[in-house]
Amino acid sequence: MTQVVERLQPWIATVEGRAQGAPRWLQDVRDKAAARFAALGFPTVRDEEWRFTNVAPIASTDFRPSAEAVVSAEQMAALPYGNLPLRIAMVNGRFSAGVSRLQNLPRGVRAGSLAAAFTEHADVVPRYYGQLADFHSRSFVALNTALAIDGAYLYIPDGTVLEHPIEILFVTAGDGSSAEMTQPRTLIVAGERSQARIVETYVTLREGTYFTNAVTEVFAGEHAVIDHYKVQQEGLEAFHIATMQVNAQRSANFSSHSFSLGGRLVRNDVNAALDGEGAEVTLNGMYLADGDRLIDNHTTIDHARAHCPSHEIYKGILGGRARAVFNGKIIVRQDAQKTDAKQTNRALLLSDSASINTKPQLEIFADDVKCTHGAAVGQLDEDAIFYLRARGLTYFEARDMLIHAFAGEIIDRVQIEPLRQALEAELYAQLANDLAEIDAA
Amino acid sequence: MLQIKNLQVKAEDKQILTGVDLHVKAGQVHAIMGPNGSGKSTLARVIAGHPEYVVTGGEVLYEGRDLLEMDPDERAREGVFMAFQYPVEIAGVNNAYFLKAAVNAKRKHLGQPELDAMEFMELIKEKSKLLEINQAMLQRAVNEGFSGGEKKRNEIFQMALLEPKLAVLDETDSGLDIDALKTVAAGVNTMRGPDRAIIVVTHYQRLLDYIVPDHVHVLSAGRIVKSGGKELALELEQKGYSWIETGAQPVGA
Ligand SMILES: Nc1ncnc2c1ncn2[C@@H]1O[C@H](COP(=O)(O)OP(=O)(O)OP(=O)(O)O)[C@@H](O)[C@H]1O
Ligand SMILES: [Mg+2]
Questions:
Q1: Are B20 and B4 a contacting pair, CB within 8 Å?
Q2: A224 with A190: CB under 8 angstroms?
Q3: Which residues in chain A are contacts of B51 at CB distance < 8 A?
Q4: Which of A110, B118, B130, B201 could anchor a disulfide with A155, C-beta 3.0 to 4.6 Å?
Q5: CA distance A275 to A292
């Protein structure tokens, strides 16, 4: 990872100017992360993990840490998501109590500012913070870990069920006059037998180029049932790089549903470690891109223990000259007998100039396992279109029906009805736009 | 109802139909037989408007109108129906949802009010008994995971729902056991009527025991080389196709 030193210099300066005076354990984590970032620099396309995604446009932009900003209740209400009864509102990476909704939480649940939790929940936070996401070898994780000053914290005690879904809403605000970056950070600790549905949303109130570099750590205790939704709808000039690291304990059930609907250059890393027997992980994803946008999804499912099933379906729809990358790694370690891993990855190309680089990556070290994977990339099925037309549907109706069916497989799995509706509306509005452009051409 | 005159059709630079003449009147059932690769499906698909085929000569009139000028979906809404030899599986599209969309597309075209969910369920109930279509088949994705027989039944079920004026059934009997064949034939027979014409494409006399045709044609090397009554099918069953002179004059029905 040789770097053009001049490019890295301002970044290292920024990292050196990081916040000081945190509790010792935290300062220690930040210092180590800063050192790792300085040593790693930015990945290049020579790095196997970044072969198809060139982050030079990020590295060569002089992003300043975003300033504090205030968002009004009206602005919040106008956002496409975030209207759930419970929400942790984060503005430019900082907890915003005024526009959060955290009344009536069950006893013992903590939801709010991570900065506050660093001191107020010091018996729990240090056990997980910076311990799950790998800042030693991942430069963007290191950057976030060095610079994040606050974040969202959700702690659910053993045996507690969050009946209502909770939304963690990251809003980027600002006048759009300068290139700013934010380091959103989330820590979710779900105790034994706890249950929750969590929506992590990234939206913006500003225009222009900005950079979101997010890290989320999730610890799912024994028998915990966690449904996690990520909605990424950044501005169309924005860069969004994110890592979610999940640790699922014995018999925990964790599902991730990732929707990528915005951004100019987007990279999502979702890594799940099945760290106890009988743990189950589902990673689903849907992404949409047009124009010159790039969406890169990298997932890793690490089967470290026996008897763990995992399921994965990623689907994308690409128009214009959009590019996508999907890399689904499945590791089955030696002790992970009776692993049952299924992976499917499909992309629909609406235009001839859209493209995807996709690859499954199986690393299997146990012998009694079941791993299946399939990938399919292509245009709309002409035979299906003709079949529908032969039954009286117009070409446009037939096409819509097929596209909706394609996306429906992922959207219909969203278990929070208002969210499902909002996602469906957004997805189909964007698609209608893309298709109108294609038809006009 | 349907007049095909000297129809010549190409696909991928291959001349498949070399001059088909066929005249089908309302109320009639015509059977088209012929060896593999003779062009039977091509004829059916050209009638349905499949975009892969290029008409290089001749004409097709449907109720006096130029059928070849119409889009496939317009043909369908105007009452042309083809039961596919190989029905297409459509992942993610619920069969009942698709059927409702098809029925309503046609109703809208004809200026009739669209059916709501309740009315559609009534219609389904009425038509599904005959073809032994069960709830599971309605709730699955279109043709996905259907057995060969289920696919064929689903085709005729669509025909029953859409009530076409002209139906072309492309090897609807292939892959059916005798019970399924009887079910499908019964479904088709209830559709026979003075205002409807049906063209059955088949290899076997067996189907024609149940759907008795008024006329039988033999298609060979892209043209109709022999036509006759239902006894022609029996003759073909006994003697095969080789006795028919392929150079024979095409005979319109
Ligand atoms: N879309 C196409 N492109 C190229 N060749 C085609 C196409 N469709 C059909 N053909 C060819 O045209 C010939 C006739 O095919 P067709 O399917 O019409 O025959 P058929 O009489 O229905 O045969 P079968 O009894 O096997 O169903 C075959 O040689 C076939 O390979
Ligand atoms: Mg055929």
A1: yes
A2: yes
A3: 382, 386
A4: A110
A5: 39
